[in-house]
Specification:
The chain is mainly α and about 180 residues long. The chain is built from 7 helices and no strands.
């Protein structure tokens, strides 16, 4: 039938979006576990230890509307790729900050990761856009299921990667975030 290729394409797109959601959520849950600990280690004023977690959410808040507009003007593929690049850049900035023992640079890195978060939160909307009316609710559910799977893998990745670089605790976790962001591209 003439609708079969479009249904097959929609299912393929939903599968890709679900995998990207899983990669993003794995990075996010891993980073949530590590950012406060890394902030505590880097901050001279320990009351600022969780500021890097906050800067990530501030980056997300400032980037949500621009991410949406970017995808409207240039398409979701461009938006998701740019978001993934921001995830890589932010993670590498944060990793370098951990190596250099620079708290404010670390907070800047998590801000840039927040830009990726703003883009990646649109995976479920992309699933709704790609699916027919009959398949839409299931498509959104499948993409969000990618996040449920990541609920297990994210903390595990953070645990496995925390000491990849013995000279700088938590640096490996941000290399893992960069790899996950790269895989989402």
């Amino acid at each position: 039938s003439s609708g079969e290729p479009s249904l097959r394409r929609a299912r393929r797109n939903v599968l890709i979006l679900a995998v990207c959601q899983a990669l993003f959520t794995s990075a996010g849950s891993g980073m949530a576990a590590v950012a406060g600990l890394a902030g505590q280690m880097l901050a001279t004023d320990k009351s600022l230890a969780t500021l890097p977690v906050s800067t990530m959410w501030i980056g997300t808040a400032f980037s949500t509307l621009p991410a949406s507009l970017l995808m409207r003007w240039y398409g979701r593929r461009v938006g998701f790729m740019l978001g993934g690049l921001m995830g890589i850049a932010g993670a590498l900035i944060a990793a370098d900050a951990l190596e250099q023992n620079r708290f404010w640079q670390f907070a800047a890195g998590t801000f840039v990761i927040g830009i990726w978060v703003a883009h990646a939160q649109l995976y479920r909307l992309a699933a709704a856009d790609t699916a027919s009316t009959a398949f839409r609710a299931r498509a959104i559910s499948l993409v969000l299921a990618g996040g449920v799977i990541a609920g297990y893998f994210g903390p595990q990745i953070a645990k496995w990667s925390v000491d990849w670089v013995p000279e700088a605790l938590y640096m490996g976790s941000y290399y893992a975030v960069a790899m996950l962001a790269g895989a989402s591209i």
